[in-house]
Amino acid sequence: MDVLIAPLALLAERRIGYPERLTASIGHPVMWFGALIDFFEKRLNIETRSPAQRKLAGVVALALVLLAVLIVSVGIRTVLSWLPFGWVVEMLLATSLLAQKELGRAVGAVAQAMRQSLAAGREAVSHIVGRDPEVLDEAGVARAALETLAESTSDGVVAPWFFLVLFGLPGIALYKAVNTADSMIGHLNARYRDYGWAAARLDDVLNWIPARLTVVLITAACFLTPDASPSSAWATARRDARKHDSPNAGWPEAAFAGALGFKLGGPRAYDGEVVDLPAFGAGRAELNAADIERALGLYRQTLNVLLALSTFVAVIVLVS
């Protein structure tokens, strides 16, 4: 019954999500990963060390984090394999490492806030992006929300599912640990350029297939979404995705832009510093709350396609 874990986890997490009461009482697995990453960073990322020493320290820290996650996740899975319905518990644990419900809720909250005021929209989007919200106009807030939705569809949903299918609970847990490390220390600044090198590179490797698979899913979802163009989604991703410095982030972003006729990307500010990023798509750049809601419709259909694919994979395995 292990083959049913992935489709059932997708279905359960989309409906239920991670209960807020659990977050308040015991936290969230990503928070636990973050605490461990922070623990090592404070002790190993020493400014007086040479770049090579800091890079080695980052490799050691990442290895220790992944070893801890591997030991715990394999141990849990082993114990659950001894129980009659242990696979159900493993499925429920896996739901905590998917982000379908929370991603949709957070991006939807930006659209709702924008309908109240620009200030409310800036406040809402500040919870899901790292850029400076106070310099964003209405279109900037909308683009920030959409870019986060597109990229997180890949690394928050498709990639965790991918490693859950391949390696079960240990696979999804290890992926989320790497992805959390990349988001915390995989930055190109003085503090993390060397120390976070290993986390950033490994995250790139792990997301290579899922990012491109996400484009396929988005393209298929266009057939189920009014006013979305599958041909433009596919063509824009192939044309524009490689413009991004990241080998992966540009693929889902370009696919969303092409599918909906938007123009995403472009300059953005982080901590007062403007970063000139490439543009994806050739459509409208002046976006609003209604455009976020259109994108959420495409997102939901992408999730439906992913669930169908996951179910198909499970059926093939069961009958083979």
TrEMBL record:
Protein localization: Cell membrane
| Transmembrane helix found in the keyword field | yes
Output the Gene Ontology cellular-component terms: plasma membrane
What keywords appear on the UniProt entry? Cell membrane, Cobalamin biosynthesis, Membrane, Transmembrane, Transmembrane helix
Principal localization reads membrane
* An example Gene Ontology biological process: cobalamin biosynthetic process
Extract the InterPro entries matched here. Answer: Cobalamin_biosynth_CobD/CbiB
Instruction: Please report the record's description of how this protein sits within the membrane.
Output: Multi-pass membrane protein
Family matches, as Pfam families: CobD_Cbib (PF03186)
**Which residues are listed as membrane-spanning?**
60-83, 158-178, 302-319
Hey, which pathway is this one from?
Cofactor biosynthesis; adenosylcobalamin biosynthesis
**Does this UniProt record's set of keywords contain Nucleotide-binding?**
no
Give the Gene Ontology MF terms in alphabetical order: ABC-type vitamin B12 transporter activity; threonine-phosphate decarboxylase activity
Function recorded in the entry: Converts cobyric acid to cobinamide by the addition of aminopropanol on the F carboxylic group.
Q: Which family does it belong to?
A: Belongs to the CobD/CbiB family.
User: Per its record, how is this protein called by name?
Assistant: Cobalamin biosynthesis protein CobD
The taxonomy runs: Bacteria, Pseudomonadati, Pseudomonadota, Alphaproteobacteria, Hyphomicrobiales
The encoding gene is cobD
